[in-house]
Input
Amino acid sequence: MSATGAPRGKLILAGITFAFLWASASAATKVGLSAVQPMVLFVPRFFLAAAIMLLISHAGMKKSLPRGKEWGRLAIYGLFNVSLYLGIYVVGMKGTSAGLGALATATNPVFISLLSAVWLRKPLKPLTILSLLLCLAGIGVAAWPLLADSYATPIGLSLVLTSMIAYSIGAIYFSASHLGSLHIFTVNGWQTLFGALFLLPVMIWEYDPAQNLFNLTWLLSSLWLVGPVSMVAVLLWLFLLKDNPVKASFWLFLCPVFGFGISAVLMREPLSFFTLAGVALVIGGLCLVQLRRK
Output
């Protein structure tokens, strides 16, 4: 039995399902981008996901609305965690393979550890620096053949990595924003809504009818990103965190593996020794971060 009393088998199933769904976001994004523009794919998704979570929070669970300074904090969190992170990410994915997108997403704990040290003005520990170097090296090794075969571009990969920095800043801000009194559906719902509102003018400004096909591909991609990814995967993650935060983070190691596997099946992206070596280096970097936390 676990710390919360959940059966071990249930935790394992939850962890594997979370890693698969979280990793599938990159492939679903690439599929959706074949039909519509980046903002057209993500902004409506944010509004839909926000509406569902806010209905659950306020209409279903009768949770109270944010108060006073909480509104501003939620807006700032939404700016970093949705507008900048996912806004930059979806644009970068136009020039990045689905597998590399999943691999880059798995490095978030490393960027968070690095920026936390800078934010709190603490000396950078050698393990943190080494873990970052290993992760960056892993992404570079995995990207090498994909760049050569036009499955990815330097600009696209740079944007995806930049989005990870925005996410890390948002995560650190959230940890210091005193929003813990609000229910998780309330926080996620309002920050997602604010993030969508910030990106709405961008979507309207760059909208080109000729570049958007609202077909079955777009619909299935959007529904997958809203349901299994934005809601089911997040709930599973919270379930795992509640049981044991350190053990929960180890499920992130499976995300690059699932990511490249899904990409190879759905997107026909090539797998090679470089892929294996890159994933191994990133997992090594993540292990160092987790060992330091433990």
Q: What stands out?
A: The mean pLDDT is 85. The chain is about 80% helix and 0% strand. The CA atoms of residues 49 and 226 lie 6 Å apart. The first helix runs from residue 8 to 33.
